[in-house]
């Protein structure tokens, strides 16, 4: 289900190419899986989840949960995630990020729905349901891809999500048993203007999720990358974090942190 190419706690210095940007947003990419993928980095200490503290998360303008599986946060980490979302933090989930933290209500609401199952990977057609969004505006109306077509345990529209992409079920084979109602059209990517994981009284940031991105080669595809980067940029443009909002409580890095060396390219610094 999860691709096997990553396991890291990575800082991405997202370059906002627009002059209105107050300053450079900082994005955290969290790609932990449980159980860990042993072939990747057998010697790497398992400490990613201990970095989920209020102080650490408060540096970031968005958190990207990338292809996670299983119980990737402990209770301290879940509390820090809740606090981060309450303070205006933005959220992005990619691929199997809907298949982790499956009993954590705040996470399920913030990402929109939980993964149920997928048929074997195959070619499929994705229909662009809403082309007005920065993650979809560049896509062909009928996007031919090779990926896992996820089914979900609930309809993300139930928490207020707007569906952007829909799997064309006539374009691929799925012999699995549907036990849940995921709504129609078949949700494949969606956004929430106000992430539903925020608690009452909090400042909701934005949430974006796409179920695509299983294969390595997909991550070398310019169209797919435009979809991903459009989703991340849109989430950041909530203006609820310090990069774009001087009165915000989270985001925009920490001048005293060693890893904030600026970089013109995404920098993968594993910690
Ligand atoms: C994907 O890429 C990673 C890193 O290059 C490699 O280790 C892995 O084997 C690749 N996975 C597949 C399924 O090709
Ligand atoms: C970040 O997490 C590490 C590991 O738990 C911790 O030692 C450090 O104090 C945290 N930093 C902040 C600013 O919270
Ligand atoms: C959550 O996922 C675990 C595997 O990580 C599984 O054993 C458990 O049954 C799942 N629980 C629910 C409520 O889906
Ligand atoms: C699936 O699509 C790829 C192009 O994305 C194509 O090269 C391949 O032949 C297709 N496979 C099948 C079984 O149609
Ligand atoms: C964020 O700020 C920009 C620049 O002022 C504005 O164009 C945009 O509409 C704002 N977004 C939101 C969600 O308020
Ligand atoms: C800026 O941040 C403050 C404090 O979190 C929040 O109340 C306000 O709504 C934010 N502004 C925007 C445009 O979201």
TrEMBL record:
Residues 255-271 have a biased composition (Low complexity). Residues 246-271 are annotated as: Disordered. Residues 1-21 form the signal peptide. The keyword Signal applies. Residues 48-235 form the ThuA-like domain. Keywords: Signal. InterPro entries: Class_I_gatase-like, ThuA-like. PANTHER family: GALACTOSE-BINDING DOMAIN-LIKE SUPERFAMILY PROTEIN, SECRETED GLYCOSYL HYDROLASE. This is Trehalose utilization-domain-containing protein. It comes from Schizophyllum amplum.
